Amino acid sequence: MFARELSRTTAVMVYGGTFLISALSFFTTLNGLAIIVSYPLAIIGSLGFQGAMLGIAWSLIRIKRNRMTYVVVFATAAIFSIFFSYANFDSKLRENTRSMDARNAFAKVGREVIEERSSLAKRARLTGQYQLDRLSHLIELEEEHGWATLVDEGSQDLFVQSVIEGARRTVKAWSANEGRDYHQGSGRGIIINYLESRRGQSRMLLNRVNDYVQWADTIATRVSERDSVAVQFAYVNRVVIDFPTSEIEMILGRELPELKALPQPGEFAEKATSSQHALALVIEDLFSMNPLAIFSLALAFAIDAIILLVALAGSRAISDVDSSDFALERVEEEAISRLKSVSLDNPTILSERLEENLASYRIAARYRDRLSILKDESRALEQGKRIVIPNSRVAILESDLDSSGENNPGSTQKDRSSTKIIIKSS
Q: Which of 258, 157, 244, 231 shows the shortest CA–CA distance to 205?
C-alpha cells in the first residue's frame, strides 16, 4: 500500500511540478513575444509552445520507448520558448541599467570629443600669445631703432618670416605708389601701422580662441552621467559647432586634421523606441554576451530544461515502483476492511475471514510472480538474450500452478504448459 501511495504522490508532484514550471515559462515567453508582436498573437504563440512542451513532457512520463523523437520535438519548441523568455528577462533586467550604460558611454565619448577640440584650442592659444608678444616686440623695435624688417633674418620661425615679408611688401607697395623710396628709421610709419594691424588681428584671434577654451572647459564639467543622452548631446553639440576652426588654422598656419565626429544619440539608446528596436537591442545583448545577457539566457534555458528533466526523472521514479505489488496492496486493503467488520468474539466468522484473506494473498502472490517473470522475459527479448530462471523458483511456480489447478477443477495441463512456456530452467 505504501508503494502505491508513494507512486500516486510522486505522479501528482511530477505532473503538478511540470505544469507550474510550464505556466512560468508561458508568461516569460508571452512577455518576450509581446515585444515584437501584438498581445493576442503573443498569447496564441505562447500557448502553442507551452502546450506542445507540456504535452511532450507528460508523454515522456508515460512512455518508455522511442523517447528520443519526443526529446527532439521538445527541444525544437524549447528553442523558441527559451529565446523569447530570454528576451523578456533581458529587457526587464536591462530596463534600468541600459539607460545608465547609454549615459555613461555617451559621456565618455562626448568628453573625448570636447577634450580633443579643447586641446587644439589651448595649443592655439599658447601659439597666439607667442605671436602677439613677438608683434609687440617688433613694434617696439621699429619705434626705437627702425629697420624691424631685418630682425630675425633667416629665422626658422614661419610666423616672424611672414610678418617681415608682409612689412616688406607694404614698403614696396608704398614706394611704387609714391614714386620714391621709403626711409626706414625710428619712429612711427607705415611699417608700424602694418605691424599694429597684424597685432590687432592676432589679438582678435587669440581672444576668440581664449573664450572658446574657457567655455569648453566649463561645458566639459557639465557633461555628466546623471543627465540624459539628449541633454549631454546638447552640450557636446554646442562645443562642436562653436569650435573656431578658421581662427585656429590661421594661428597655427596649417589645416587641422580630421577631428572626432559628434556622437549621435541614436547610437546610445536609453530605451527601445519601437518593437523592432527592442528586438535589435535584445539580439545585440545576446551577441555581446554581457553578464546580464548571460544570466538572462541561463535563466530562460533552466526553466524549459527543468520541465524536461522533471518529466524524465518523474517517469523513472514512477516506474521504479513495481506495479506487480499493486495486487498485494489491494488484497491488503480488502483484508483490513474485512477484519475491521468482524468481531473478535466470534471465532468461526473470524476464521472464515482469515482463510479468505489467505486465499486472496496466495492468488495475488502467484499473480505477482507470474507478472515478474513476464517482465523479465520481455526485457530479455528486447535485448536479444535468454533469461534463466533458477530451479527453485520454477518449483515454486509449478507448486502454485498445481494448487491453482486443484482450486480450479476446470484448469488443464494445456493451461499450465502455456503458462510455463516462458520459463527457461537451468
A: 244
179 phi and psi angles, rounded to 5 deg: 80, 20
- pTM assigned to the model: 0.52
Give residues with Cβ within 8 angstroms of 66, minimum separation 6: none
Closest-CA residue to 21 (of 311, 313, 317, 318): 311
pLDDT the model gives residue 173: 84
How is residue 342 annotated by DSSP?
A: S
- Determine contact, residues 324/368, Cβ cutoff 8 Å: yes
Is the C-alpha dihedral spanning 262, 264, 269, 270 positive or negative? positive
Cβ atoms of 209 and 125 closer than 8 Å = yes
Can you tell me which residue has the cell 520481455?
378
Q: Which residues of 64-89 are buried (b: 16+ CB within 10 A; e: fewer)?
A: eeebeebbeebeebbebbbbbbbbbb
Cell, residue 18: 511540470
Instruction: Give phi and psi for 12, each to the nearest 5.
Output: -60, -45
pLDDT of the residue at 394: 40
Say how far apart CA 111 and CA 109 lie, in whole Å.
Answer: 5
C-alpha triplet 367, 369, 371: angle, nearest 5°: 65
Q: How many helices (H) and strands (E) does the chain have?
A: 13, 0
Q: Give one DSSP letter per residue of 134-185, joined into a string.
A: HHHHHHHHHHHT--GGGTTTT-S-HHHHHHHHHHHHHHHHHHHHHTS-----
Residue 186's region, left for phi above 0, alpha for psi from -120 to 50, else beta, is beta
- Rounded to the nearest 10 degrees, the angle between the axes of helix 39-62 and helix 2-33 is 160
> Which residues are CB-neighbours of 70 under 8 A, at least 6 positions away?
56, 59, 60, 63
User: Angle at CA 112, nearest 5°, toward 110 and 116?
Assistant: 120
Return d(Cα 266, Cα 108) in angstroms, integer.
16
CA-based nearest residue to 22, from 62, 61, 49, 42: 49
Mean pLDDT of 342-369: 74
CA quadruple 154, 159, 163, 164: dihedral, nearest 10: 0
Which neighbouring-strand residues pair with 425?
389
Q: How far is the C-alpha of 188 from the C-alpha of 146, rounded, in Å?
A: 9
Cβ within 8 Å of residue 405, ≥6 positions away? 411, 415, 416
| CA distance linking residue 212 with residue 244, whole number of Å | 8
Rg of the chain in Å (alpha carbons): 48
pLDDT band at 396 (very low <50, low <70, confident <90, very high): very low
- Report yes or no: 216 and 255 within 8 Å, Cβ to Cβ: no
